[in-house]
Design goal:
Blueprint (H helix, E strand, L loop, with lengths): L9 E10 L3 E9 L5 E9 L2 E8 L4 E8 L4 E5 L2 E3 L6 H13 L5 E9 L8 E10 L12 E6 L1 H10 L5 H10 L5
Parallel strand pairs: 4-9
Antiparallel strand pairs: 1-2, 2-3, 4-7, 5-6, 5-10, 8-9
Helix pairs in contact: 2-3
Length: 181
């Protein structure tokens, strides 16, 4: 299928409406396809990494992370922002070490995908990390999480049943699943 190259929405101007240490909101003044004008708010977020860590025994390392916006604990994969100067794989290794105390013998990039097509510019880089050895996590002061190695079949069942609540973690795990059989 041919890709359209002419954008139907034209940005006429922009300003930052709000920002935090984790993301910011850019207000774009735009011309819509029908010729009228309006505002389109875009969430700008640093690209991040999501890691599917697999131990020597075949367990998938999940984290049970407290998410304040939801007010509950959520099952997820290790993940985090790419810091300035880091490649995606360097960020993945750093996040695996920080959140699980782990390191991997082998890395495979699975995909890079947008996660907020209608509201933001965030890109997620998905990695499979194998032969992972765990250690002591070194969490940031804002993080509350527990590390839980989980049998592969159980982790995939959690993703398929909705027990794993982070959609991007679910996507990463299901993308890696065929490579784990």
């Amino acid at each position: 299928m041919p890709e359209d190259t002419d954008p139907p929405i034209t940005r006429l101007g922009s300003h930052i409406a709000w920002e935090s240490p984790w993301y910011r909101v850019r207000a774009d003044r735009v011309r819509w396809p029908d010729g009228s004008t309006g505002v389109y708010n875009v969430v700008e977020k640093t690209p991040s990494v999501f890691i599917v860590p697999v131990t020597h025994t075949g367990d998938i390392v999940l984290i049970h992370s407290y998410r304040h916006p939801l007010g509950r604990w959520c099952w997820e994969l290790p993940a985090g922002a790419i810091e300035p100067g880091q490649t995606p794989q360097q960020a993945a290794a750093a996040e695996l070490l920080q959140e699980t105390g782990g390191s991997a013998a082998h890395w495979r990039h699975l995909a890079t995908l947008p996660t907020m097509n209608g509201t933001g510019d965030h890109l997620a880089h998905f990695f499979l990390a194998t032969c992972v050895t765990l250690g002591a996590p070194n969490l940031e002061h804002t993080e509350a999480l527990r590390v839980q190695p989980t049998a592969r079949a159980d982790a995939i069942a959690m993703a398929l049943s909705g027990q794993m609540q982070d959609a991007v973690s679910v996507a990463a795990l299901l993308m890696a699943a065929p490579l784990l059989e």
